[in-house]
Task: structure prediction
Amino acid sequence: MSGTAGSFTVRNERGMVVLAALGRWDAAAARLLDAPLRAFRAGGSQTVRLDLGQIERFDTAGAWLVWRTHKRLSAEGATVELVGLDPARQALLEQVAANDHPVRVEPDKSRGLARIAERTGKGAVQALRKGRNFVAFFGLIMVTLARAVAQPRRFRITSIVYHVEQVGLNALPIVGLISFLIGIVLAYQGASQLQQFGAEVFVVNLIAISVLRELAILLTAIIIAGRSGSAFTAQIGAMKVHEEVDAMRALGLDPMEILVLPRVIALVIALPLLAFFADIMGLLGGGLMAWFALDVSPAVFIERLHAATGFWTVAVGLIKAPVFALLIAMVGCYEGLRVEGSAESVGRLTTRAVVESIFLVIVVDALFSIFFAAIGV
Result:
């Protein structure tokens, strides 16, 4: 090799091999010097001289390369001489050599069951910590809401209206379409089963109870979690990446009041309205399919619908809506505020927000079902 930025030359001199180091032997040059030094051999000579007198810059990385080469050649049976080092560089090389203590890494001998138990335990601890932080975040939202109620001027009406439009009005097409199709599927599948018993007319009961109590609100919440909850995380996360949240705090503004509270309030307002719209679209789809597939006229459908449903049939689904909205908005904003300043973090936490929101919605829906069954509703 030649040059001055981390290089060396090799020559034979009176029966010995001389390796003359040139230029800078530092961390910047270590990558270039590593492979050539590994490939260097004494070539049958019993003596190798490492001439370090022409090194321009020498740091710990360069000292390690010299010491590694010295140790390898000595292990191969050559006599190695070091020349040209001033006292400071000699002391550095001796320090590196004194700290060369190879450690043998023991293979992991733990059994598969123990590893599974360990991972399960770590996952449980992390889940508990996250649950604690989430409860604390809920408390912070409640404190911010109470402060805004005490001082109504803190409510950002324009922001709330804007987010109601984004999460509510703009979501009507997809929510309506999904609910309409679910009503059609329920009517079609229910009819194919009930026809075996001559009870086609009870398909109205199936559609009404399934859509009004469970499917409409559950599917709407899942759609909103994937659509709006992820948007909350991405929007706040992007602001974290661009340090806009830090700028708010520097100006004396509260991110909870400006970013979180309007989104939470908007979703709590919009989701019950979306759930009611989903109820209507689901019943409409089921009614049309019952009319075409079973010849159940609209008048008969409405009559059976009135007989099969009551106040609580509709109320059960609508009661769930604000709770689901609060969970979705909280998870989306919480994960957005946890973004750590990179685009990769935004994407990862946005995905996590969607998964966590859907998981919590389904768990809470199951708890609601148990509760309503226990009280006889």
In short: Residues 7-98 form a domain with the Transcription Regulator spoIIAA fold (CATH 3.30.750.24). The two ends are 86 Å apart (CA to CA).
